[in-house]
Amino acid sequence: CKIQNNNNATRFEKSLDKEIQEYFWIKNDLLKLGLKEELYLDYQPIYSIDTNRLVGVEALIRWNHGEKGIIPPARFIPIAEKIGMIHPIGEWVLLKACSQNKEWQELGYDPIYISVNVSVLQLEKPDFTKRIKKILEKSMLKPQYLQLEITETFFTQNYELIQDTIKELGKLGIKIAIDDFGTGYSSLGQLCELNINNIKIDRMFIDGVDGNINKSKIVKGIISLAESLNITLTAEGVEREEELKFLNTNRCTFVQGYLFSKPVEAYKIEELLKRNG
Ligand code: C2E
Ligand code: CA
Ligand code: CA
Ligand code: CA
């Protein structure tokens, strides 16, 4: 028994050790990151359920590390937030995403919106709206083709400041989406007050929604809530036909997920745009 405990303790120490090591190399490498060389964006299509048309894409960051290969955002964004690198990285993402969308429009395709994830830390910066304006000027993208995805966690931090920023962004004509809806703490009142355009229902509720009574009740509830507030809805992580069928029957607006496409490189989106008209 004693030996077993020792083994467990050693295993625990080893995994902790690995985590700490990973934290340090990611931190170090982030600090000397060549933004332009090592970062890139994949884009995941978002479709209208009604028309089957591509209406937008979500930009998702990837880090192509010289030695370690491709590092997913879940592993480095939280560390980038801790060490302040989220600001240059976030700015790079916004400019890249807006410029890419403008490029597609210049090629003559029907305009779609680009949806960009922003960290609460970016929103908290007092000059965030000014920076967004600059990025729109630089990329020459019209504000209605940019959507910012904000996670629900912002409702718990610096709420007043962020609320003002969201209102300013809305006045510019930018779309605001609440990401991972259902996992955080937002309330009806807050959604009303902020003029949110879009709610993204978290994947956790969509996964198996067709066969789970509680999930289906929650999703139906969110849909009717959004409808009554005039907010469009995006279901995230749609993987199965049955899930899509449920969402269609219950009048969800937009869908996104592996059933349609994984996040892909820009040239693949261009192929979809060609078919889109
Ligand atoms: P998220 O914003 O909730 O993005 C959706 C994630 O779900 C993406 O993972 C996407 O690849 C994945 N996904 C999409 N459809 C499906 C599906 O049908 N099934 C499953 N199992 N997964 C699906 P990814 O690209 O690894 O991104 C993870 C998270 O990293 C994002 O979650 C977002 O919070 C964050 N992130 C990504 N790019 C950025 C960025 O530019 N800035 C910031 N601040 N965060 C980012
Ligand atoms: Ca997102
Ligand atoms: Ca999400
Ligand atoms: Ca699923």
UniProtKB/TrEMBL annotation:
It comes from the Bacteria. This is EAL domain-containing protein. The chain holds residues 410 to 686 of 693 of the full protein. Residues 23-277 form the EAL domain.
